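Quiz preparation item.
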């Protein structure tokens, strides 16, 4: 495993948050690009510039249902003195050979249909009698119900300027122009543009596959009955949801009992579908913290760059952490603590950036800002630890939610920010300015 961070001198030394993150990002590399169908590429990062092969729109077309006419033929038209024009036919969207409009003529035209030869402008149907001779129309009758509407005479009650209600060829984007830049995340609007210019596939970095599993014999699947001493498994759900929010395809394995061999087998089985693995629990110093024991012999740690290292970080919550690569493909693995708040904070600080690095994104981290602390009392923080407290942020102010306990899930559910207390700060008074990580 390569590392950009200086390793601590001994087992009792702490890694800083930044050292641990630097080590992760020095190891994780963007996934190799692949060619995908448009809908399969949703959420992926484009790896090439895409230019426009055909202008949008590819031809002048009508933006209204109405009549395509010559400007001179409707000049001065009014309800008292309407312009009476001969209707020479229909122009529907998709028409390949539209009728020609000559002097004194009009063609009934539909939204999106090409402007026919000879026509200079479009008058909306509401400016006409719709060919009915009964005053201003509210719309067109369906051709299947009234085919005669494409013939006869139409009265126009208002004049129109040249190219009124006409979408010009290339008015959206012209052939040869840049449609999308490499590095763009493909959402619905970007996929719409690719489809509109005729691209059926696109070259992207795929969304990383993240496998999440939690450990602990006390964990029970939600919906099942709790026995004495058991709790529901929330971490695997929280982290799977968080991985999806970060852009990954996430697979939740669920709770694995505190048995090293079972955990080792489960991890090895899951490697086939993982670009990144995340475990939660079993990384501290208890007699049943089996992640260390299991990971000590998973994969090819004897090969160059393999193996998982367990560390203590100068942070609260989330002091025990593990990171390394496992298996024949050196799949990155992040081992997070088991307390719910500790695991979630650890995910935001370390796993989310790793996922986005795999995607090839440049913006890896949640946005940060400065805010005024609104609290009833000073915030206390252990010296030498970077503390992350839950909070709610609004209008430049942040208010703590819940206490510092790493088990307070209800408080976490109400938070939309993390309040950062630096390592050298033991107390933050109300009204002070603090750094805030915005959680979205």
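Solution:
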């Amino acid at each position: 495993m390569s590392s950009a961070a200086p390793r601590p001198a001994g087992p009792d030394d702490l890694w800083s948050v930044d050292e641990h993150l630097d080590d992760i990002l020095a190891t994780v590399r963007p996934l190799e690009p692949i060619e995908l169908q448009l809908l399969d590429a949703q959420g992926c990062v484009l790896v090439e510039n895409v230019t426009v092969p055909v202008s949008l729109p590819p031809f002048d077309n009508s933006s209204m249902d109405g009549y395509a006419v010559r400007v001179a033929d409707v000049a001065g038209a009014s309800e008292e003195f309407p312009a009476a024009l001969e209707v020479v036919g229909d122009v529907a969207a998709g028409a390949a050979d539209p009728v020609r409009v000559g002097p004194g003529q009009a063609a009934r035209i539909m939204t999106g249909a090409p402007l026919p030869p000879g026509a200079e402008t479009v008058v909306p149907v509401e400016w006409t009698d719709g060919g009915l001779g009964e005053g201003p129309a509210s719309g067109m009758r369906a051709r299947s119900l009234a085919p005669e509407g494409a013939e006869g005479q139409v009265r126009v009650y208002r004049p129109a300027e040249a190219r009124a209600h006409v979408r010009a060829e290339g008015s959206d984007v012209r052939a040869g122009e840049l449609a999308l830049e490499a590095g763009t995340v493909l959402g619905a609007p970007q996929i719409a543009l690719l489809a509109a210019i005729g691209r059926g596939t696109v070259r992207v970095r795929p969304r990383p596959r993240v496998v999440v599993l939690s450990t602990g014999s006390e964990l029970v699947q939600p919906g099942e009955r709790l026995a004495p001493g058991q709790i529901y498994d929330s971490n695997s759900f929280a982290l799977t949801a968080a991985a999806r929010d970060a852009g990954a395809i996430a697979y939740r394995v669920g709770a694995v009992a505190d048995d090293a061999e079972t955990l080792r087998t489960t991890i090895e089985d899951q490697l086939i579908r993982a670009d990144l693995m995340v475990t939660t629990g079993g990384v501290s110093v208890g007699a049943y913290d089996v992640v260390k024991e299991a990971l000590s012999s998973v994969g090819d740690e004897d090969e160059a760059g393999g193996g998982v290292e367990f560390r203590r970080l100068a942070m609260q919550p989330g002091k025990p952490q593990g990171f390394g690569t496992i298996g024949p493909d050196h799949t990155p693995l992040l081992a997070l603590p088991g307390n719910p708040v500790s695991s979630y904070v650890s995910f935001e600080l370390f796993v989310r950036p790793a996922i986005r690095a795999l995607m090839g994104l440049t913006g890896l981290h949640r946005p940060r800002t400065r805010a005024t602390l609104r609290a009833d009392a000073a915030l206390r923080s252990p010296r030498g630890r970077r503390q992350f407290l839950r909070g709610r942020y609004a209008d430049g102010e942040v208010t703590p939610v819940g206490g510092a306990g790493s088990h307070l899930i209800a408080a976490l559910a109400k938070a939309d920010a993390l309040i950062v207390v630096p390592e050298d700060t033991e107390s933050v008074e109300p009204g002070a300015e603090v750094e805030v990580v915005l959680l979205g």
